[in-house]
Amino acid sequence: MGDSGAMIVRAEDYSHLSERGRSLVARFRGRIVELASEDRPASLLEVGCGQGWLTKELAAGMPEARIAGIDIREDAVEFARGLVPGVGFSVAPGEELPFEDGSFDIIVCSEVLEHVDDPSVVLAEMDRVGTGHLVVSVPHEPWFWGANLARGKYLRTFGNCPGHIHHWTKSGLTRLLRGRYEQVTVEGSFPWLLADVRR
Hints:
The protein is α/β, with parallel strands linked by helices and 199 residues long. Helices cover 33% and strands 21% of the residues. The protein has six helices and seven strands. Helix 2 links the parallel strand 1 and strand 2. The radius of gyration is 17 Å and the shape is globular. It starts with 18 loop residues before the first helix and ends with a strand.
């Protein structure tokens, strides 16, 4: 607690990483923005926006678009509101998105599907509120584990981050998405996978 009595919230902006790690994050996020802005969407939803660091880059890359973000963590959403004031943020789970059908031209879902009980339920909700274009990213296993081990993180769980209940390979993510979408392109941005999918 500071003098004002406000709780200090640690910024989850990857600033604690090495220069190489920050470079990987910048390349990864830059590619997400490229894919999301390719068709110049008028509206975008980020599912699992966390503190809004990626949202900030999406908003900068698409200044004309109406952008919204949701996350289940109230403290993260409060932080995001201060970081990107022009964006409409809400507290909500990916399984129950508080929007009308077809509300968004594109949906970005970055580093979420490894955390949720049933990824297909979240995908179905994103399908409902979107118009069929999605950009999805997940940690690329086993490379993500290896990168954690190399920097001495999560040694007791062999590099697996707490809260990761699904572990995605390129073929596994492709299979999941091809069960729902006609066009699926999956690429790597070490140590993540990026998928551009369309109905």
